[in-house]
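User: Predict the complex.
Assistant: Input components as received:
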Amino acid sequence: MLNSRPMELRRYQTSDLDQVVALWKECGLTTAANNPYRDIQRKTADSPELFFVGEEQGKIVASCMAGFDGHRGWIYYLAVAPSLQGKGLGARIMRHAEKALLDSGCPKIDLMVRKTNTQMLDFYSKIGYQSDPVVVMSKRLYDDEASD
Ligand SMILES: CC(C)(COP(=O)(O)OP(=O)(O)OC[C@H]1O[C@@H](n2cnc3c(N)ncnc32)[C@H](O)[C@@H]1OP(=O)(O)O)[C@@H](O)C(=O)NCCC(=O)NCCS
């Protein structure tokens, strides 16, 4: 897809906080189990170099939180402002994150899509991802709200 949007891709910075959280809320990415402020706090303490935003004229219009655990790369909080979706920005910020992971030595990227978010499977397929026959299991070690 041709992309003529002037979106600048860069690392997340502290002053982006409220806009990024607003973007995630607008895109339906926040849940009762995930405190976005805590998620950002943990990410910036751990690997801020892999947390990206897209900015147009001072406004945060896209985000992508990548991670590399030494074995696999991961993608979280991929979002494009609803009014700008379908213009190639999601694919662009994903390519940016993939390049950063590759440069870190990461050989493969995994990501999780909520079962209810079926449209995302089409998006990720379009940009080269495949569905693997795995079940994701998890165990919560502490609850953000309970630990306040
Ligand atoms: C997922 C998301 C980031 C995609 O961003 P986007 O900027 O709209 O996507 P792009 O314009 O870069 O699309 C890239 C390709 O995927 C396709 N695509 C995008 N969204 C799609 C959808 N919902 N269904 C099917 N195909 C889709 C586009 O048509 C395009 O294909 P093309 O290159 O053949 O034209 C955006 O829809 C979003 O923020 N959604 C809400 C948040 C979310 O659910 N995030 C993912 C959590 S797992």
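The mean pLDDT is 94.
Let me know if you want any component modeled separately.
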